[in-house]
Every structure is written in structure tokens, then in C-alpha cells.
Amino acid sequence: MKQILLVTDGCSNVGMSPVVAAAHAQGEGITVNVIGILDHGDVGELGASEIDEIARAGGGLSRMVNTRQLSQTVQMMTRKTVMQTVQIAVQKELKQVFGNGSIEALPPEKRSEVVRVIDELGETQKLQVALLIDASASMKPKLQAVEEAIRDLMLSLQARQGQSELCVFHFPGSRHGDECIMDIGWTSDLSGVHSIFTKLPMSGTTPTGPAIMQVIDFYRAEAYGKGSRDETDGMMSDYVV
């Protein structure tokens, strides 16, 4: 299961629409969740609208939070979208078997078994979360909260039974480019998180759409390197419902 978790505090202002980019991600089997750390006023309202649209296009969740709520929200959204991904895959399997994709339509004894399977798969399936951090200038005072949220998310992922990996990107990647930069590759290790934020360059532009597309390219290149496979397909092959 693959996720992009975007943490931002404002509207994109460079490059392609992030809503279009999020739709591309969903088409690649990557869920896009968005957490907005926004101030009040017109900019906040516009940013909130964009954040909601990005998440809907990416098949994920969006939340507006202050820095105190960030860590808890990151963990909640990650786990909730894992369960949503599993449930969609299970319903797809049910439709193929029974001609009806609704769990509620099953007899009570079968329904309880399916719910058990969903819970188990949510804990055991491999999970990859690409954390995409808005490094525009206005985010500078909020980076300590972001760093704490990354550490707490990693601890939460380590508590899962299945393999869990996190990588970290920031955008924009340079003063003159729209690309994002990978700060930490796939890892289950907490070390190295703090070093990102001590040297992170802060820029005024917010190229959210191009950044999402580059993370999609990163996922795609990895899939080609290892042999492409949709991990949600056939995830119930070992279960009889």
C-alpha cells in the first residue's frame, strides 16, 4: 500500500495543478493525504479549499490543524487510509465472488469474518508512506512540529506487524527549480530525521503539483526496478470468506 502525505500551509503558486497531480497519483494506486497548517483569513480559506480538493482527487483524507494537533493527525490519517485501502480491495474481491461488493449485504457470520480479515490485513500488509513537506518560507516556524510528527509517525509505523517504510521529500528543491528533493530514502530508522531540518532551504514558491508528480515518478521508478505489482490485488487470496 502506497501513500503520499502532503504537509503544507498554503496555496500552490507554481506549475501544474496539484489536484490534477493527485488524480494522477490515485491512478497509479497511490493515496494522497493532505494536512494543512494554515493561518486565518483569505489565504487560509483558499488554501483549505485547495487542500480538500487535492485529497479528494487523490482518494485520501484532508485535515486542517494547528501545530499542536499535527503529530496525532498524521498518525490517524495514515492508519485510516490504510483501512480504507484494504476495505476497497476486499469489497472488490467480494464483488467478484458474490456479485455484490457490500460488506453489509453479507450474512452476519460472514460479515464478522470479513471485518476480522480487514483488521488483520490493515496490520500486516506492507505500507510505504512518502512524506512531502512544503518548505516555502512561511513554513519555517512550523518545522519543529513537522519534525516531531515524523518521529511519532515512524514510531507508529514500527508498531505495525507488517513492513512499514517512510521516505521524506521537501519542495521546492531549489531556488530556480520546481522539483522536490528526497531527504531520506525508504527507511524504518528514526536516525537522520533531525538533520533534514537544520539545513533545509526555505523558498517563497510553492510548486505543490510538480512535487507530487516527482514523488509519483519516484514510486514508478521503484516499481519498474523491482517488478511492478499491485499489492492490493488478490490480497485476500489466502482467505476463504
TrEMBL record:
SUPFAM superfamilies in alphabetical order: vWA-like
InterPro entries: VWF_A (IPR002035), vWFA_dom_sf (IPR036465)
Domain VWFA: 1-86, 128-241
Transmembrane annotation, as ranges: none
Protein name: VWFA domain-containing protein
